[in-house]
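I have been asked to look over a protein record a colleague put together. Alongside the sequence sits a line of tokens, each denoting a local backbone shape. Please read both lines and tell me whether the tokens look consistent with the sequence. Take the sequence as given and treat only the tokens as open to question. I have pasted the whole thing underneath without changing anything:
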Amino acid sequence: MAPDEDWREPPRGAAAHVTRLYADQDLALYERLTGHRLREPLVLNLFSFLLGVRLPGPGTNYLKQDTVFWRRVPLDAALSATVAITRLRPEKRLVDLATVCRIHDSGRDGDIVATGRALVLAPHWTPDDWDRHAQLAACQA
């Protein structure tokens, strides 16, 4: 199973990335806290981490998220999540981002687990922040 033909790789430049391997004890704790064994919310957690800590960063308000899962989330492999800016709307302090999560493991490295998009409010960005990210986006066009 692969993403549909309209899906594109996130642009390079204005992006943030994290790789995480959930250990058995992480999954057991998650199951104890939530009462179920779904692993997909753990992928969404990676996106939330990136948006709230790295890009745009602390103070970010999550407004919307759409995610499509293309395969089951493996228990035995590291996951690499990336968020990348696709559109800036400084007049409203809004940032649109593409999201992608891949398996980061030999033999399956690069297989896409989930793709999507997020819309966030970045009230803490200064005019310089908006200008810097707009310049990165212009370089990619």
